[in-house]
Amino acid sequence: MKTVNSATASIFIFLAVLLSISRADVYGIIPSPLQVAIAIGIVLLLFGVLGGRKIFLTVLLAIGGFALIMLAWSFGTQPFFPAGHDGYVYHLTAIWDLANGWHPFFTSNNNIWVDSYPSGYWTLQSFLVSTTGLTMAGQSLLIGLMAVLGLQSYAFFQELTSPLMTRFKPWSAILFSGIVVANPVLLTQIQTHYVDAPLYLVGASLIFFLISDAFSRDRTAFVGAISCVIILINIKTSALYFTPLILFGGFLVELYIFREPSEPMRRVFQWIGKRGMYYGLAGVFGILVIGYKPYVTNVLDHDNFFYPPSAEIMDKNTPVNVQEPMSSPMKFLIGMLARTEHNRYGIPVEAPINIKIPGTFTLAEFKAPDFDIRRGGFGPLFSLALLASLLSILASRLAIIREELTLPQRKSCGIALFGFILLGMTIFFPEPWWARYVPFLWLTPIFLAISPLIFEVTGRTRIFAQSMLTITLASLLGCVLSGTLGAARQHVQTYERFATLEQMKAAPFVELTLIKEVRVFSDEDSLSQSDAATVYAEILQEEGIKTRITAEFDEEKCAQSGYFFGAVLWCIPNMSKE
To answer: What UniProt keywords are attached to this protein's entry (predicted)?
Structure first.
């Protein structure tokens, strides 16, 4: 586990250092390749202090493998276009502007979302775009982070479950780590520019670093966790809610495992002095330095960390039966009982969430998920998985409630405790019904279900707990299947949508019209709410297609027309009517 922690931590440290260097280069005088080289050098120096030269090869292989995975994905997927709306509306604008030298600290961006949202993940993606010269290369960072989390979680579960297995020892670790990585929110955001999936990946890696450090006092896991904090805060504004709660979870797990009933406060102050203080400093650095824009600038310009205000963003953007003033726990309950349904074009975003009994499903639900799914986003069997995992841990823990727990059993309870913390922070999140907004909930049934494996229960309790574990795993695998089929359907439709580019190449030009938004957001520095039409103009120009951006769409004058992601209508004019 220590070798894996060194490998995975080195990647996150590299990304955090690279992000810091890009912020420090205020005049844009350091070329991207040189920034990468400097970051690698700093990582090697740090690991020289942590583990000596013997660990250099591990670090270089880890970063090199990480880079190769991303490069292979970037070039291998070059013929395909991304799915998703928000990528075209503002994510690509941010990535391309950063790749072209824009520094967010000193210049406002004309796009309101780019100007007001964290740019850390976009900055890391921009290195891939500027290095490869491929406009969509930023998507490959997600694949690299998936590989990192897969390796990290495999090593964790292998160490946890191998003493329990007499045969097929690697398979249980492969199963659990595979489920961790195959979060349907993540699967449906592959080949998109959404940031919910990377939020989950970096946050999940932070969780595994915290648990690993709590179990074995691993310095590399500790430094890896610090790096994750810096990166996580600069992926999405909701990280300001999730990050401190995840760190608090790590603190409670360590406090529980190594509890000292006679001197509990001594343990608390020890953790604060040896761990908590550094996590706090990392958070402050991530917000005030790396995240100066938007966090500080939003406060200075708008007197608010979050701009535009989330209440205004969610207005006319929420299913009617989970709107304010409904409480977050009630929204969570409706979200958990939701039928998994696709957000097809033409269905109002305020259409109600349909409720069902946990464990029931229709075949249509298994191909419904997409990048933005608002109803039953974790899959058709997730509520059953959550319920079964809760029954499993409760029955197992009650069976040994009067016994003195061994250290392995306390560690197992610590994992379950983290699962409950993730459940709690989801329930009280303002929008807990929307899976992509609360991606960490996916880990809760995994953490709850695996914990009873360590308990030495017998008889009916053992049979019941194992039955619930089987139901949990089968249900989660059903959700993975749903996410996989939904993602496949989504990418087939995306391919078909862009197949019309061949007809466009034969036209003198193509008109692009942005559908007007019902909600309007802007300020004195940022006048654009969507750059989708401009982004498509650049994409089509790369394909050799001339475009004109128009204010109004007139289907009658089109020889052929259609719809692009990001609310853009395209039209090949009928030249005989010109």
So the answer is: Membrane, Transmembrane, Transmembrane helix
User: Which stretches of 390-523 are assigned E, i.e. beta strand?
Assistant: 510-514
Residue type, 468: M
Q: Which residue has the tokens 């994992």?
A: 415
List per-residue pLDDT tens for the chain, 578 residues long: 778 999 999 999 999 999 999 999 988 899 999 999 999 999 999 988 877 777 889 999 999 999 999 999 999 999 999 999 999 999 999 999 999 999 999 889 999 999 999 999 999 999 999 999 999 999 999 999 999 999 999 999 998 887 766 666 788 899 999 999 999 999 999 999 999 999 999 999 999 999 999 998 889 999 999 999 999 999 999 999 999 999 999 999 999 988 777 677 888 899 999 999 999 999 999 999 999 999 999 999 888 888 888 888 888 889 999 998 999 999 999 999 999 987 766 677 888 999 999 999 999 999 999 998 888 999 999 999 999 999 999 998 888 888 788 888 889 999 999 999 999 999 999 999 999 999 999 999 999 999 888 777 778 888 898 899 999 999 999 999 999 999 999 999 999 999 999 899 999 999 999 998 877 887 778 889 999 999 999 999 999 999 999 999 999 899 999 999 999 999 999 876 55
Phi-psi region of 133 (alpha: psi -120 to 50; beta: other; left: phi over 0): left
3-state secondary structure of 419: helix
Number of CB atoms found within 10 A of residue 103's CB? 17
Q: Could you tell me the pTM of the whole model?
A: 0.96
Q: Is the peptide bond before 430 cis (omega within 30 degrees of 0)?
A: no
Helices first, then strands: H and E counts in the chain: 24, 4
List, as one string, the DSSP characters of 86-148: HIIIIIHHHHHHHHTT--TTTS--SBHHHHHS--HHHHHHHHHHHHH--TTGGGHHHHHHHHH
Dist CA 539 CA 193 (whole Å):
15
With beta carbons less than 8 A apart as the criterion, state whether 377 and 197 touch. no
Is residue 547 a contact partner of residue 511, using CB atoms and an 8 Å limit?
A: yes
Separation between Cα atoms, residue 483 and residue 391, nearest integer Å: 25
